[in-house]
Design goal:
- The complex is a heterodimer of chains A (about 130) and B (about 525).
- Helix content of chain A is about 60%, strand content about 0%.
- With about 130 residues, chain A is mainly α.
- Chain A has one domain.
- Chain A is globular and about 50 Å long.
- In chain B, the strands form four sheets. In chain B, strands 1, 2, 6, 7, 8, 9 and 17 form a seven-stranded mixed beta sheet that branches. Chain B has a four-stranded mixed beta sheet with strand order 4-3-15-14, with helices on one face.
- Chain B is an alpha/beta fold and about 525 residues long.
- The chains are: A mainly alpha (about 130), B alpha/beta (about 525).
């Protein structure tokens, strides 16, 4: 069974692109961070945590009239910062921490495709 | 099986003991709980290494089956409080940062220099710098150190066998800072081949040094120097993945050998005339406690190092990618600091992984995520950091005991860690953070920040102190020859014997002490 359903996956993709947004350099989902997280969720047995957190994010958004993915980036930021009940805010911290791990760690982990973040910060593996 | 000597642990101390004893004609059995690993076995995984052990660490101990207890909570090797060090052939020396410091002469005389603060177990070593000096030199030449002449704060010594690694761009800026401040410097001494030596290549200045295995085999550990020498004698047997569960003793109390699990999990015994413990300060104490050998001092005075660290940003890019990254050090503040006890050596840092930067150096005003976080990450090539290991002021209540309820995969009670360092350590750390900031400012950095130190237990890769050397069995565990009090043929050759742990990385002292102890064993055989 895949760790996340279709809605959860869409919410995840939109959320991590607020954690590391696109600018002159790609966003989190554009360099493989979804795959990184899906693998990590299974390795670290985080299925329940991610499902519950993403469901809460979506439910909170729907209460405000639409799906999380249909909000503007600013509204998504607000949902991530303030939209969730206290109990779920720790999920956003976990999601942020792990997305950043995917984005800035070695490409062998599945995120940071083509060493994009390393090129951005100026870290170079020469030998 | 019967041999002359059994050595438990193939790390910095055990590797040297194996070599000295085997080359002196003794038959030696080395039992190492970790595996024999090469460069190819240790991944360059930025989330699983000994610098950042988020989901693993790339060597032993395995995450499952080797728990410890920390302040009552069960911990695996990558969880906070475990105080891990690499277990493998070579131990920490396979992946270490290889700084090759001698302790300062006053590091051996802390109590008589500063007095003993209330509630601390601060004491002088029963031996002096001069006693250890020839063994320091031997470690520098036999294992192989690169570096410069000593800073003026240290005694004169024989030159190292190899020149220093070149200063990095960061070090050159820090050198300018020290000139403004009038501080003397020394190239950071390192157990690394700066030039080809001993049949192995020179450092290729790669970007994955501390926490990783070396691609050019130029990082000098025991696994690629003295252990091969020991094996070449034909008298030394090395058994990796062999875990000693208990020391065996006769009715009279003499240690006769060990009981251990071999790599297939079979329970075996081996007998020896001499047993040398070198499993690190936590596991050596655990084995003694589980074997009911040694007095009340065993397991007490657990210490490591606090780190006084400050970071800041230069106006321009100073990242040059030249490994290992550490190359310049200041020793002005190891002693003689107003109002605090001891001090620390300060240096620049190894090349930092971007994800380590993200996790360890985010200033409080930068949010956890979002565009502002990404913008901050782009400051990485301008980041400059200095810091160093602060001399711990030990407490007898900071200790290793064995758990009454938690056992490892072999059913052996695990180490249980509790207590904290003495509060004076925090004062010295705060003082040293001030000096680190001063150095950064003088070097041209701005937006400088540091984490506020808090009271806690530190042991980790620099763990020490749990079998303190001394004359009186009431407050020490081993005698001046590092024999466990009351047991003529049981020796300790790791950092457990350190009375205090210096304001320096401790590995060269572990090596020098092991040479001294091993020479003593051979000399009195």
């Amino acid at each position: 069974m895949p760790p996340l359903n279709e809605v959860q996956l869409r919410t995840l993709t939109a959320a991590i692109d607020r954690i590391v947004p696109a600018d002159d350099f790609p966003s989190a989902s554009q360099v493989g961070c979804v795959d990184f997280l899906l693998r990590l969720i299974q390795l670290e047995h985080l299925e329940d945590t991610y499902r519950a957190g993403l469901d809460a994010l979506e439910a909170q958004s729907v209460k405000s009239g639409r799906s999380f993915v249909d909000f503007t980036p600013e509204q998504q930021d607000a949902q991530l910062q303030h939209g969730l009940p206290i109990k779920q805010r720790r999920f956003v911290e976990l999601l942020a921490r792990q997305t950043i791990e995917g984005y800035y760690a070695d490409p062998g982990n599945g995120g940071n495709r083509d060493c994009v973040s390393w090129k951005m910060v100026g870290f170079e593996v020469r030998n | 099986m019967k041999v002359d000597a059994i050595i438990i642990g193939a790390g910095a101390g055990g590797g040297i003991a194996a070599c000295v004893l085997a080359e002196a004609g003794k038959t030696v059995l080395v039992l190492e709980r970790g595996r024999s690993l090469s460069f190819a076995d240790v991944p360059r995984d930025h989330l699983r290494n000994h610098r950042l052990s988020q989901y693993g660490h790339g060597t032993g101990p395995d995450l499952v089956g080797n728990p410890r207890v920390f302040n009552g909570k069960v911990r695996n090797p990558i969880q906070g409080g475990y105080n891990n060090n690499a277990s493998c052939v070579g131990g920490g020396t396979l992946v270490y940062g290889m700084q090759a410091w001698r302790f300062h002469p006053l590091d051996f005389k802390m109590a008589s220099t500063y007095g003993v603060p209330e509630g601390s177990s601060l004491a002088d070593w029963p031996i002096s710098y001069e006693d250890l000096e020839p063994y320091y030199e031997r470690a520098e030449w036999e294992i192989g150190v690169s570096g410069s002449p000593p800073a003026p704060e240290m005694p004169a010594r024989r030159d190292y066998p190899m020149p220093q690694v070149p200063y990095t761009t960061k070090a050159k800026r820090l050198l300018e800072g020290t000139r403004k401040l009038g501080w003397a410097v020394q190239a950071t001494p390192m157990l690394i081949n700066s030039v080809p030596r001993d049949g192995r290549d020179a450092c290729i200045e790669c970007q994955h040094c501390v926490g990783f295995a070396c691609p050019s085999n130029s990082k000098n550990g025991t696994w690629n120097t003295v252990i091969p020498r020991a094996l070449a004698t034909g008298r030394c047997t090395l058994e990796p993945q062999s875990f000693v569960t208990k020391l065996r003793k006769s009715a009279g109390g003499r240690v006769t050998g060990v009981e251990y699990r071999d790599s297939d999990g079979n329970l075996k015994t081996a007998d020896a005339d001499v047993v040398v413990l070198a499993g690190g300060a936590i596991e050596t104490a655990r084995l003694l406690l589980n074997s009911k050998i040694g007095g009340d001092a065993v397991g007490r005075n657990l210490q490591g190092h606090y780190y006084a660290v400050a970071g800041g940003y230069m106006p321009d890019k100073i990242w040059d990618g030249q490994g290992p990254g550490v190359s310049i050090s200041v020793l002005k503040f190891n002693h003689g600091n107003d109002g605090v006890i001891g001090g620390a050596m300060m240096s620049d840092d190894f090349i930092m992984l971007p994800i380590h930067f993200a996790k360890a150096f985010r200033p409080p005003e930068v949010p956890l995520w979002g565009q502002a976080h990404k913008d901050w990450m782009k400051c990485y090539p301008r980041f400059l950091q200095v810091g160093g290991p602060v001399h711990e002021i030990p407490s007898a209540e900071c200790r290793v005991q064995v758990s009454r309820s938690v056992r490892d995969k072999w059913g052996v009670p695990v180490a249980s860690l509790s207590g904290t360092t003495h509060p004076a350590t925090v004062d010295t750390t705060r003082y040293m953070i001030g000096r680190a900031k001063e150095w950064l400012v003088a070097s041209g950095a701005g937006s400088i920040y540091a984490n506020e130190p808090g009271l806690g237990l530190s042991a980790g890769q620099h763990q020490a102190g749990t079998c303190r050397m001394g004359v009186d069995p009431r407050d020490s565990a081993v005698d001046l020859r590092c024999r466990v009090h009351g047991h003529d043929n049981l020796f300790v050759a790791d950092s457990s014997v350190h009375v205090t742990n210096g304001g320096f990385n401790p590995v060269l002292t572990i090596m020098a002490m092991s040479y001294r102890t091993s020479d003593g064993i051979v000399g009195s055989w």
